[in-house]
Structure formats: structure tokens, C-alpha cells
Amino acid sequence: MKMSKRSIGSLLIFVIILLVDFVSKKMALSVAPHTPWMGLFELGIVTPEDTNFVVMDPSSTLRVIHYATFIGPLLLIYFFLLSQMSKKQVFSYFQPWVTFWVVGLIGNIMDRMLYGSVLSWFTVKPFNCEWSVASLSVLVGVIGCVVQLVRHRKAVFQFYSKRKMTMTHPRFQTLYILKIIAISCFLAVSLLVFSYTFLKFYVFQFGIIIPKPILRVFLIEFGFIIAVFLGILLLMGLYYSSKIAGPLYAFEQFIERLKKGEDTTLILREDDDMKELESIAKTIKDHWKP
Questions:
Q1: pLDDT score at 143
Q2: Angstrom distance (rounded) from CA 285 to CA 164
Q3: Are 94 and 148 in contact (CB under 8 A)?
Q4: Do residues 25 and 132 make contact, with C-beta atoms less than 8 angstroms apart?
Q5: Phi, psi at residue 42, to the nearest 5°?
Q6: Which of 2, 95, 120, 167 is the most exposed place for a label (fewest CB within 10 A)?
Q7: Can you tell me the distance from the alpha carbon of 172 to that of 187, in angstroms, rounded to the nearest whole number?
Q8: Are 264 and 290 in contact (CB under 8 A)?
């Protein structure tokens, strides 16, 4: 699939902002807090109190694992949106702003992974606002998305009024989604059994006793993460199944109209799959004998 210029530009923005945010915070760690700069700003890390990350510290390691699990669903949603927005001109305007928003969120999540809190390293003195590159990126992304939504509100409304994500083939789409969910649940249960038994029994062989409250928290968080992934898969399954079921339903209706002797043409939606049905329908129409 050929990527559009906006998609490539959005990915470049993603990488650049993530690197600049990470490097700027590392550099700010060496600057004394509240260092005046240009009269209007103060430089230096103002949060958190303890910015020393030790990878062997159990609490730090657990924090990394905890927050890293949320980056996966966020990236999954981001790349899904990026691929879909590139297919429609009106939504392509949102790509860079969504990128600013998402990369800012990921930058702040990485702060919580590495330092236990979101880092802010420059303060705007007149407003006493503490910022970082990631925080500014989120702000720019939100403002940009709102501006684009206001500018293109008519086109966005027309798109969603024409295309509604409904079940045109309930039986097919339900089975399609259930198969995806079933496979995902099987993998989730396998991971849960392995992780839980590893923590409770295998680690116990080395004399490490994990308290029951920690195991309980592990099970709750594991269930929450799986629920998030299943929710995303459910929505994606509905979306992708509609791109298959829609053309099939339209083709069935086309045949029914031909049977009634109507002069009809099959025209699928712009982003539907199975576009070859249009040429098949034309061939059938040319050779149709009532």
C-alpha cells in the first residue's frame, strides 16, 4: 500500500517529537531547577522529586511493565487511524494533528515509566505554567484537531451521515467478529495461565514469595488490559467486516433489482473492499436475460 505524503510526514513528526522530547528532558536533568532564561522562562526539571531511575529496582521495573502495556493499544489505534485517514481527503488534514496528540501522550507515558511522573522542564513565568515538549505536543494536537473539525465539519458530517458502521449482514459479521474474539481469548488465557503460574510457582522455587495482594492486582490489571484489547478488536472487527459485508449486501440487492427488470448499476463505496464486484456486476448485467 502506497503511503501518502501526509502519512509519511506524520510519521516523521512522530519520530522527531519523540526524540526531541526524550533528549530535552535528559539535558534538563543537568540544569538546576528554576534557572531564569530570557526573562519569561525558567528552565530545569520541576517534577518529580526523584528522577533517578534504577532498572534493578523492583518498583521501577514493575512501573515500566505497567505503563508499557498501554503504549501497545495506543499505537494500535494510532496506526489504524493513520491508515484510514489517508484514504479520505477530508480526514487526511487531521493526520499531523492526531500525530502531535498521540506522540505527546506516549512521551508522557514514557516519563511515568522511567521517572514515576510526568517531567516538566520549562516554566512560563507570567502564567506559572509548567511544560515539556510532550505536553506542548498534546496541546498543539488537540487545538489542531478542533480547528480542522470546525473547518471541515460539513464534510465530516456528510461522511458519517452517508456511511454508518452497521451490520448489513448480521450473521456473517457476528461470526467474523466472534472468530477474532475467540482466537484472542484463547491467546489471552494462555498468557494468563503462563504468567500466573510463573509468578506463583516457578518464582517460588527460588525462595521468592509473592504476597496475595500483588497477585490479585496482577490479575485485575491483566484482565483490564485484555478487556481494552478485546474492545479494540471488537470495533475493528465490526469496521473491517462492514467493508466486506457491505459490498456483498449491495451485490445481492443488485441481483434482486435485475430480477425485477430494473435498469440498475452496482456502485460500491469509495473505501469498500471487493471492488471487483462492480466489473462482475457489469458483466452480469450485459448478459442478463430476464
A1: 92
A2: 28
A3: yes
A4: yes
A5: -125, 130
A6: 2
A7: 23
A8: no
Rounded distance between C-alpha atoms, residue 186 and residue 194, angstroms: 12
Question: Contact at 8 Å (CB) between 90 and 156?
Answer: yes
Tell me if 138 sits within 8 A of 108, measured CB to CB: yes
- Tell me whether strands 129-131 and 120-124 are parallel, antiparallel or unpaired: antiparallel
State yes or no: pLDDT of 166 exceeds 70: no
Q: How far apart are CA 210 and CA 182, in angstroms?
A: 31
Coil, strand or helix: which one is 121?
strand
Band (pLDDT 50/70/90 cuts) for residue 36 is low
Helices (H), 198-261: 212-259
Grid coordinates given for 220: 485485575
Q: Is residue 117 packed enough to be buried (19+ CB in 10 Å), middle (13-18) or exposed (0-12)?
A: middle
Residue type, 270: E
Helix (H, G, I), strand (E, B) or coil at 269: coil
